[in-house]
Sequence to fold (91 residues):
Amino acid sequence: MAKKGDFIPKSEDFVNALQKIFKQESAKGNKSIIVNSGELHRVVGGYPRRNHRMPVCCSVMKKAMKSTDHIISEPLKGQGASLSIEYKLPR
Fold:
């Protein structure tokens, strides 16, 4: 159980952070961005911690994929801090 004051992100927190990254990188004129799940979770908060939400983070990242996107690296179990996905921009 999380201690009082511990931030436990929800899927919408990861969705919002990913959308913000897409918007910022598109505004810079970038044609693609590689997002790493460990880095995204650190930006959102709550990682690394015992009660991290890495499976939720990875699930959100995979659901955000379009046919032009591809997985750069993926842990054996599919959900972990080494998941990296290249997303084509703009979105």
About this structure: Residues 11-88 form one domain.
